[in-house]
Amino acid sequence: MLKVKNVTKYYGKNLAVDNLSFEVKEGEIFGLLGVNGAGKTTTFRMITGLLDKTGGEITFDGKKIDYNLTDKIGFLTEERSLLTKLTVLEQAKFYGGLKGLTEEEINKRLDYLLKKLEITEYKNRKIKELSKGNQQKVQFIMAIINKPKLLILDEPFSGLDPINIELFKSLILELKKEGTSIIFSSHRMDHVEYFCESLVILVKGKTVLQGNLKEIKENYRRKNIIIEGDVSIKDLKEIKGVMNVEENNGSIVVKIEDDSIRESVFKHISKCKNITKFIVEEPSLNEIFIEKVGGSYEK
What we know:
alpha/beta, single chain, six-stranded mixed beta sheet, Rossmann fold, Alpha-Beta Plaits, 2 domains, four-stranded antiparallel beta sheet
């Protein structure tokens, strides 16, 4: 288990991370979110020991993270960090050697991961000769070549098409099943909702929202009501507590202030004809993020 307790980081007089605390259990995928400059990268670097913290405590399985534990950590950075003049095999030998793996272990693990990501033919190709998407696959392989017990994924799907995203998803879930603790960061809220049970949202290094994702969504006051039928959008907008009404793919989406407005909306549409759908939806994580942080989180 990873424990981050009351961690603070200053760059000179600039406070980059402010009293941050969270835990990532064995076999859990945890979301660490925030816009650029929120403190995510600084936090990742403190966890991996690349940066010294100003205050607080970071432990993994009850031990301080140092060079004795780094062999158990994998880190997929948002920026490319490959030695492009090397072949994929040479890169694997370099990274695997740094993690204490034998050449036999490296070859066996590399062959398995190349097959999983459907790029076995590139084993002896130079990285600079590969497409951006395949370079991203190689970078992912290097992050997990050592079967890490703690894995940090910063924008793991960058440059990937939907088919290759599914290949990555499969490997991430495989690692979770094997007990790897994973910190997941993405600008795509649908990916966060797919993977993460719990999360933290940072704004300028400070936690603005934290907890179990399901509970966060259940406790969020604003809801969406999906309606299909002969209903006047103008009349719906006049109901007190209705924030917005819009059409979307043949349905009418009604945004309400809180769950108490549902009854008023239902009472209104019960007088209308041909109503075939009335569903109250929990808000999306993207909606919650926009309220907490401001601005769209989609790139």
